[in-house]
Amino acid sequence: MSNRIWNFSAGPAVLPESVLEEAAQNLLSLGDTGVGICEHSHRGKPFVAVADEAESLCREIADIPDNYRVLFLQGGASLQFGMVPMNFLAKDQTADYLVTGAWARKALKEAKRFGNAHVACNSENANFNYIPSEMNYSDAPRYVHYASNNTIYGTQFRTEPTGFSSDAFLVRDASSEIFSRPIDIAKHGIIYAGAQKNLGPSGVTLVIIRDDLVEAGSHELTSMLQYRTHAGANSMFNTPPTSGIYLMMLVFRWIKEHGGLTGMQTRNEDKAGRLYEYLDNSSLFQATAEQDSRSLMNVTFVTGDADRDAAFISQAEAKGFSALKGHRSVGGMRASIYNAFPAEGVDALIEFMKEFEASA
Ligand SMILES: Cc1ncc(COP(=O)(O)O)c(C=O)c1O
Q: Is the pTM higher than 0.90?
């Protein structure tokens, strides 16, 4: 139908085409209201129905227990890097951080502004190409923070970290893998994710937070920075990102129609599996992440020669494979193949890589 190309962007990233088509129609008029989705008041019935459906679908697909709140906030995952410690970490308390990538390190930096931040593991010595198996937790952390998928380095936790004091709650930055596989909400106190990879456009942040933590946060902060403010106002304390929440609602419908989170996992294992299999058998390209830490969302690889990498990226671009350049801090290539990225695009990339390899 269109001139769309294969978009491997790490975020904002590809969205399901059916979602975009439906959104395009509703930009002019949401249903038969005669008013476009961006033009509706957030207090009016049509948008409130959208927000209610977004929340209930989110709860349904992720099987979110009743004692958790679902919030649609702003400020991206980066604001959560600060909001978590400013609400929960007093000057004399310690929080543990699993430093498995640049985003996790940024979260650590924000925590240090408010209290003690203890590094429970750090894989920087190997350019973050693995998830450490040994953790060195502090004795009584207030919480333990991790980023479950490391967007830049293409690594992903297989399971939630364990072994820390049972008094601590687990905080997960799930930005680059949210709803790409089933998630055990009850093991966490807070889960947050910027929407722009797996859930919708940038500008809306999904936060799933346990009830007791909504109440336990600091009362000293300005209202916008307290979770209780947003929980108390059903994420409508101020004007929410209405069009982003609408798109998220459409993406949740799409996830449900495609088998929910187990359907997403099957789809993602299949796509990433094909690409890693090719990489493992290639005599030109190599995957950079250690095998047992590989991400299903961001597949990072190199040829081992920076000039050849650059030639590959530019030839790929010319053939309609966009945004394959690795993050500026690591170089090489990165194929981000989030939920909505089609399997045909992965196959087309593999074919192109084979051609490039044959001509190299
Ligand atoms: C794992 C992870 N955490 C946090 C962020 C920052 O997100 P935002 O731009 O929404 O603040 C990103 C952005 O790519 C990310 O990949």
A: yes
